[in-house]
Amino acid sequence: MFNPFFPLVFLFSGSFLAYAMGRAEKIYQKKYLAATTALLFFSIALILQIILAVHIWDNGSLSFYIGDTLLRMDALSIILSLIALSLGTVVCLYSVIYMEHDQGQEYYYPLLLLMVAGIVGIGLATDFLVMYLFFELMSIPSYALVVFRRHEWMAIEAGMKYIVMGAVGSAFAFFGISLVYFQTGTLQFNNLVGMLSTTPILQAALLFLIIGFGVKAAIVPLHTWLPDAHSAAPSGISAMLSGIVIGAGFFTLLRSLLVFTGTGLAAGELLIIMSLITMSVGNLMAYSQLSHKQADLKRILAYSSVAQMGYILLGVGVGLAYGIRVGYEGGLFHIMTHAFMKGLAFLCAGAIIHQLGTRYVDEMEGIGLSMKVTVFAFALSLLALAGVPPLSGFMSEWMVFSGGIMTYGVIGLWGIAIAVIALLNALLSLGYYLPIIKTMYLPTERKGILKARDPSAVMLLAIGILAGLTIILGVWPELGLKAVKPAVDILVSLGGV
Amino acid sequence: MLFENELLVWLCLVFPFVGTTLVPLIARLGQSVRTAFAVIIGFLTAGSVLLLLPEVWVGRTQGLAYTFNWAPSIGLVFSVYIDPLSVMMAAIAGGIGSLVLLYSVKYMAGQDGLTRYYALVLLFIGSMIGLVFVDNLLVLYFFWEAVGLCSYALIGFYTKDLKAAKAGIKALVTTRVGDIGFLIGIFVLGSGAMTALGTDFWQSLSIHYLIQNVSAIPTETLTIAGFCFLLGAMGKSAQVPLHVWLPDAMEAPTTISALIHAATMVNAGVYLLARSLPLFSRVTGWMTALMVVGGITAFLAATMALVEHDLKRMLAYSTISQLGYMIFGLGLISGFTVATFHLMSHAIFKALLFLGAGAVIHSIETRNMYQMGGLKKEMKLTYIVMLIGGLSLAGLIPFSGFWSKDMILATTWETKNYIPFLFMIITAILTAAYTIRMVNLVFWGESRRNTIAHEAPWQMAAPLILLAIGTVVSWMGIGFLTRAYTSFNLSGHGLTLSSFINETFQTPVVWISLGAFIIGIGLFMIRKRYAANTVGDRTVIVARQGYGFDTFYGWIIQCLRGFATRFRKTHTGDLNYNIAGMALGFLILLIILFFIGGL
Amino acid sequence: MGVELYLMFAGAILFLGLYCVLTKKSIIKSAIGISIMVKGGSLSFLVAGGATAQVAVVLIIVIDAIVAAVLLSMAVNVYKHTGSLDFEALKRLWG
């Protein structure tokens, strides 16, 4: 019952079965076979994961061997796999209808399952190599999923950029791992913690690891693939990519950086500086989208992901650098809330774009009056992203900013400077979230918009689940923080601060 | 005692929030059921707060404190602490809020999106009550922002009106500028106190804990936090130069304007400063800053009100000006009582003025005062209540505005701040002038309309009458107020009604302030001669444009947009450049590590 | 110094590959560049030696092959749409 490998087993076997069902779909002319199979396996994995999570929060982490390889499920990996599985389930539900007319169902669902399996696996890994393996298991399906609609030029171009940058990043990360191995002769996290010292080779390794895994985490200036890939992918996949794949990329980075704590290498300070750059560039670019005609809705959301990634980096960065607990808590909680609210935003945007056949914000005037539920949920997600209470984004951004300002106690006025930059960013982000909402509720005469209707009940259910989570995590943050707290305990104990 | 105090406190909070969530569900039963439900919830809220009022105001020496574990994982506790100030603020929010809800039944009838309207109004009231009840600064910030959200959504209620939508955004963004300061202030204060007092994170954010231990907190921390709090209050309470959102917010339905101006939003800033007064009062220059900000705001806004032709915008400027008075009052020694007293009387007469203006607008469907005139005969009741409200605003005895404003002026005089006193007197003169101008343009003289006015129906008239009575009698509560303050050690000056009247008439200030009223009317009489001269003309034009604040902010946004557009070109989309970005990232990290990591 | 020299050589290979991706405008050449970069990593593992290194190298060869396959299949699509394999064709999305 409590074998932590079970979710992974279900995801893998689900991907095989979904492929088989996808083939059967074609032969027997039936619809939804692959989709329902994938949905079933996703839900089983999610339920198992929840049971495991409750068990592990009470009884501590579970380790197990696959051959000689040690995998471990602890609170830190639970937070990642819980988010990935729940978002994956919702996206799968959404895709049942959203992707029903697409060719290649037998590829879509297995790839989705494998991608989530990769994310879950990243959390389980206890050494660099296994983590890298799962990291690639996540990346490669995501490349393929971005170009899933390969008749669209946008998808092809975006996928090309994504894979080239992703592969270069992976090569960097691999080199960084090899340097760690060169220096220490082991890749086990447990063995590495505390045995590292400040040598030039390790400093180089730190740089390579940040650059390598930072590509997936969309740290500026490694983010340039993101706006293309996240806006060109099918909306369900955009939700996954923005929601959790960049989070998983960051998680990989964090696991690598934790090894370096206590060595005098300023990993935390690096993250803080990168976070400020990341959020500023992300917000500025998202803002600049609106200043020209034909602002692409999904592109704005994609850039906003870059900015939100900056908040996550800031939270974890101050935790890593100064041991500020609320920073860790905010950072991890923001990964969670961001996954749900950005997922929600992309799912709604997908439904709107699907109905209207346009991606441009100024052609969506008045859509709020005909697609009432969808646009309301969309407005909710944007307000949450902008950090407005009582929505989840407020809670987590608030904790992140708290962490940022708390550095005042350590580095004095620099801390205030960090906070001012972060808060000005939050202010700037209002400059593009609110006009989108405004545009969508303006009156319109256009027929296409007046005729638009809310999507089918299944898609609305997916949207509703995420909207519910966005509100609940804002009013009752304890639900999410229960998962965050034990993870932060681990981070603090590893960080040794 | 009818109910447990604890139950009452939670009821005050639970009613509006549960109401908000239930309104959309109840709306399925029918429009009128929903409206009735919202109004009932409003009155239930008001009832709970008013039942709480005597509990706290009479014979207690300590606040009611209750806690609720909100997020135990991170130690976040929802702690409530109720003293006379918070219960007064809550009574204003709940009482005026419920009257506004009743008024809305008729005023808003037949509009689209009323479910959203009622849900948000209840949320607005609830957030404001939450804001004044909570003890933890961070939780206060939660409600602070929630109030901001409600104002954004309600100002932009007419989504089909582009101007309204923009005004909503402007309100949220402008107040957020102040909130940057506020949040930083909270944390600087919290982390400073945490180190100095050796407590945990959440404890160090409790206002009452901080006030009790204020002497142990380092002055530098208090200085930074104090000015940051001031910035936050300037945003919420629309002080110059962050006042620009409030006149634009007049695009909202008039009921919402009344709510924002009297019951909720703008009071939050004054409340925050009043609440944190014991913390910062010994910070050098902080009190002076309050006086300067408040004084400038009061004066500038009064001049703008003098030349405004839109009835609601004129009232908005008058609110800004009166808020300036309050902030100014807080900057005085023993200013706590006078400022909060003025807040109370202002809330009542400003709600009256707005709802009266709403009745006028509802009836003749224009907001331009030059298209009104002669409404005296057709809308007798509205005329009388508006006159009461206006005279109270202008500071005529015996209306509440006179007593509270005179108290501010007298305190200024007694503390020997003669130059600020002069300034405030001039403002008082201007106030009288613009009030009379408003009454004249709207009610007196010949009709300049082509519509026929009708008197307000009872759902609108009842709140007006109640508020008018409040305007006449509310000042008599001064005895309760000061005694409650004294017993809670909020302010040292206990008064009874008779001693208050005595004190008021002992100083020469009362004659000066009454003189100001008469001079103001005189100024209004000679307005034609003033406007005829060119210098006057030019000042009028400058004042009509709001002294260029909007132009300035527009310019900043233009610059930002230009920069963003240019910055966008750095993202060429060329893969070679993208890879170069990665190499650049590598270099940046190398450089940073070189400087901070001791490479 | 001896072993470090090999390591520097491995690093040089990595940056050589990066230089290739950075300057060449052809998708095929960039694919080759990526492969070269990965070889730098493999080499540095081999320099360190040991059982884990062998596992790592085998692993990365497999992963590199898969990535290359996906990349080249995308390149085929690019070619179908534009008739060229040049980065210049990939500049429609920007900003």
Produce a short descriptive summary.
The complex is a heterotrimer of chains A (497), B (599) and C (95). Chain A is mainly alpha-helical.
The greatest interface between two protein chains, and residues involved on each side, is:
A-B, 78 and 69 residues
| Rg of chain A | 21 Å
Q: Helix proportion of residues of chain C, in percent?
A: over 70%
- Kindly state the number of beta strands of chain C: 0
List unreliable stretches of 5+ residues of chain C: none
- Distance, first to last CA of chain C: 47 Å
CATH class of chain C: Mainly Alpha
Q: What are the secondary-structure elements of chain A, in order, as H or E?
A: HHEEHHHHHHHHHHHHHHHHHHH
Strand content of chain A: under 5%
Total count of domains of chain C? 1
Task: Give the oligomer, counting copies of the same chain as homo and different chains as hetero.
Answer: heterotrimer
The number of helical runs of chain A is 21
Number of DSSP-assigned strands of chain A = 2
Beta-strand residue percentage of chain C: under 5%
Tell me what the structure shows:
In chain A, helix 11 (267-290) runs parallel beside helix 18. Chain A is built from 21 helices and 2 strands. By secondary structure, chain A is mainly α. Chain A has one domain. Chain B has a two-stranded antiparallel ribbon with strand order 1-2. Helices cover 74% and strands 3% of the residues of chain B. With 599 residues, chain B is mostly helical. Chain C contains 3 helices and no strands. Chain C has helices spanning 2-23, 27-48, 51-82. In chain C, 36% of the residues are buried. Chains in contact: A-B, A-C, B-C. At the A-B interface, helix 6, helix 8, helix 11, helix 13 and helix 16 of A face helix 5, helix 6, helix 25 and helix 26 of B.
Task: Describe how the helices and strands are arranged.
The complex is a heterotrimer of chains A (497), B (599) and C (95).
Chain A: H1 6-28, H2 33-59, E1 62-66, E2 69-73, H3 75-98, H4 105-124, H5 128-146, H6 153-184, H7 189-192, H8 200-216, H9 226-232, H10 235-258, H11 267-290, H12 297-322, H13 325-356, H14 367-370, H15 372-385, H16 392-406, H17 408-411, H18 413-440, H19 447-451, H20 457-475, H21 478-495
Antiparallel strand pairs in A: 1-2
Helix pairs in contact in A: 1-2, 1-4, 2-3, 2-4, 3-4, 3-10, 3-13, 3-20, 3-21, 4-5, 4-10, 5-6, 5-10, 6-8, 6-9, 8-10, 9-10, 9-12, 10-12, 10-13, 11-12, 11-18, 12-13, 12-16, 12-18, 13-15, 13-16, 13-20, 13-21, 15-18, 15-20, 16-18, 16-20
Chain B: H1 5-26, H2 31-57, E1 64-71, E2 76-82, H3 84-107, H4 114-133, H5 137-155, H6 162-197, H7 207-212, H8 219-236, H9 245-248, H10 254-263, H11 265-280, H12 286-307, H13 311-330, H14 335-364, H15 375-378, H16 380-394, H17 400-414, H18 418-443, H19 458-473, H20 478-487, H21 497-506, H22 509-525, H23 527-532, H24 534-544, H25 549-568, H26 575-596
Antiparallel strand pairs in B: 1-2
Helix pairs in contact in B: 1-2, 1-4, 2-3, 2-4, 3-4, 3-10, 3-14, 3-19, 4-5, 5-6, 6-8, 8-11, 10-14, 11-13, 11-14, 12-13, 12-18, 13-14, 13-17, 13-18, 14-16, 14-17, 14-19, 16-18, 16-19, 18-22
Chain C: H1 2-23, H2 27-48, H3 51-82
